[in-house]
Amino acid sequence: MQLSIGSRLKAERERLGLSQLAFGELGGVKKLAQLNYEKGDRFPDAQYLAALAKFGVDVQYIVTGIHSVSSMSQDETRLVELYRAAPVVVKAAVLSALTNGSSEERAEQVIHGDVLGNVIKGNVAIGAGGIMNKNTKRK
Question: Does pTM top 0.85 for this prediction?
Fold first, then answer.
């Protein structure tokens, strides 16, 4: 579901932890104008959006619904850079890990050549036999 400009504007305001009054002041408007923008009764002009951009507001997100790279943290930016440079199999593994394997789009694994051994589905605990005593001290 695509959010409206007003909803995205409110989301940015909340992300920055500002009241409607404070956020409106950053853009050079009164609280009532800010309220009307967020409700979708009015649309912000370029001057207002340019003023907000100076304070770290993601104007691209407000207008298009797509977050700009510059609004991401350094960690997020690095993650995107690494992801874009990664081979397809690594991208599939990353998506699987981040979605906890619950993604509807699962990567198909194709294995070429002879396969020796067992195929196991589900969680498997692998251990070596024997008794392990954690209370013993080394000499």
Answer: no
